[in-house]
Amino acid sequence: MTFLDRPASTAAPLALAGARLTAYWALIKDLQTGLLLLTATAGYATGCCRNLQAPGILPVLGSLFLAVSGSTVLNMLLDRDIDARMVRTRRRPLPMGRVSPGEALILGGALVTGGVGWAFWLNALFGWIVLAGVLLDVLVYTVLLKRRTAFSVIIGGLAGGMPVLAGRAAAMGEIDAVGVLLALAVLSWIPMHIMTLSIKCGEDYRRAGVPVFPNVYGERVTRVVIAGASVIAVVLVLLAGWLAGLSGVLLQQLGAAGLVLSGLVLLGVVRPGRQLNLVLYKGASLYMLASMVLLIGGGL
């Protein structure tokens, strides 16, 4: 018997449950969460072989998945009025009414509680870093700063750097220079990523009343900031890779990826355009993906 052949009394609840799970899944922003987990994997892989008492990678990623996805759900809950006014986000589950605010609060709270609790159970230092990431993301960035200043993106970047720092700390049993450099690299990359998006969706952000760099300081200044942030991110990733003991070949590949990204960003300053901005937006994500994969490869 296929799904279509099931009696209506059975098929309807199954379809409703499937739609509900799909809506819940959309709340966690799986691509964003997945990229942050990849950074945590890179941090862990660069140091795990030096500490035989390090917890396994799966529980580390499991706790981070719960904490990161829970934070994202809570952010979606807090920003549902903003999302409803933006073309890019108005079809998300909360603005569309597919998930109620109460459901989102319970889901996000349960995920964060489970993730942070699991993190502390694995290692106290790891737990504190995960908790710091949640508080920076939800309370400081979303609640206190996002609607007030364009510089909130810096706190957003700091929160985004916590998973890679947590992964490295879980592996090493301490916060070290490599972990800090990787966190700062992600901090530099996230504003670049968000500012590129805010250039593309400037009118959306204006309509929603969210201050972003292009609307507050102009596109020219924003592109210069993006260029500076990209160079900083590339240098920090290379320095972290060198200190972590990556081979010369992998360091060359990291450098090549960084040169491509920096070239695109500098071209965006000299000859700005919508198409190039879209390429840069996607290219920034590809650079972070490639650099984390290379770091993982060097740690294996």
What is the topological layout?
Elements: H1 8-27, H2 30-45, H3 57-78, H4 80-85, H5 93-96, H6 101-122, H7 124-145, H8 152-160, H9 162-172, H10 177-200, H11 202-208, H12 213-217, H13 219-243, H14 248-270, H15 274-299
Helix pairs in contact: 2-3, 2-9, 2-15, 3-6, 3-7, 6-7, 7-8, 7-9, 8-10, 9-10, 10-13, 10-15, 13-14, 14-15
Low-confidence stretches: 1-5
Number of helices: 15
Order of H and E elements:
HHHHHHHHHHHHHHH
Q: Compute the gyration radius: what is it? A: 20 Å
Short summary:
This protein has 300 residues and is mainly alpha-helical. It is 81% helix and 0% strand.
Fold and architecture overview:
- The chain has 300 residues and is mostly helical.
- The chain is 81% helix and 0% strand.
- The chain has helices at residues 8-27, 30-45, 57-78, 80-85, 93-96, 101-122, 124-145, 152-160, 162-172, 177-200, 202-208, 213-217, 219-243, 248-270, 274-299.
- Helix 8 (152-160) crosses helix 10.
- The protein starts with 7 loop residues before the first helix and ends with a helix.
- Residues 1-5 have low confidence and may be disordered.
Task: Please supply descriptive tags for the structure shown above.
15 helices, 300 residues, disordered N terminus
